[in-house]
């Protein structure tokens, strides 16, 4: 579904991605783990068309999106849930959700998806008219995921969904990611919480200073001594 080939990204003289290649197949949850500054966010932003790519290619559903603008990438079925949620404060929960559907014209489909989002996240329905800024961190993460679902994505990119959340909420968010995947959305997940990210991943990649250093199934990586030592504190 997604194929990133030899991707390079520079910020001025800093090379944040040094030739990264990854694949995501339809139906999978793929995790990309790595320490602070490894280039995980850059990777997602480059795929979504938000940061400028220096060279390489990104194919989505068999077509290059290397030069496609972010809006058309969303329209093609690829939606990102950004780091730090980036919900729209000053807008209600409902308005935030509807922002996710801004490119859609199918009123009936939008209403159906809104009902699905309420079913997935009952707390959002309870808070529907509340200013989004008054939500807790976990609720804001749910809102950001709900907003992404309103775009009806085929592939959802998630940037650090566990950031700043208490362990019990992290578990809840990860179990929701599994449910979203089971309902047919392919997921590419970026995380510093390696244990959780590997535990739900079909496959995973390890990014270190702009390069993929290891890949395998989630289970293989969780059991790898290198990963245990570097990322799982064991
Ligand atoms: P974190 O988990 O801390 O967000 P990350 O793995 O997502 O880290 P990136 O945010 O992609 O890493 O950063 C990769 C490298 O690129 C880092 O060295 C960072 O300092 C640098 N970088 C990121 N954004 C910019 C920018 N806008 N301008 C200059 N350098 C940047």
UniProtKB/TrEMBL annotation:
One of its GO terms (molecular function) is branched-chain amino acid transmembrane transporter activity. Belongs to the ABC transporter superfamily. It comes from the Bacteria. Residues 2-234 form the ABC transporter domain. CDD domains: ABC_TM1139_LivF_branched (cd03224). SUPFAM superfamilies: P-loop containing nucleoside triphosphate hydrolases. GO terms for biological process: L-amino acid transport. InterPro entries: AAA+_ATPase (IPR003593), ABC_branched_ATPase_LivF/BraG (IPR030660), ABC_transporter-like_ATP-bd (IPR003439), ABC_transporter-like_CS (IPR017871), BCAA_Transport_ATP-bd_LivF (IPR052156), P-loop_NTPase (IPR027417). Keywords: Amino-acid transport, ATP-binding, Nucleotide-binding, Transport. It holds the Pfam family ABC_tran. This is ABC transporter ATP-binding protein. Gene3D superfamilies: P-loop containing nucleotide triphosphate hydrolases.
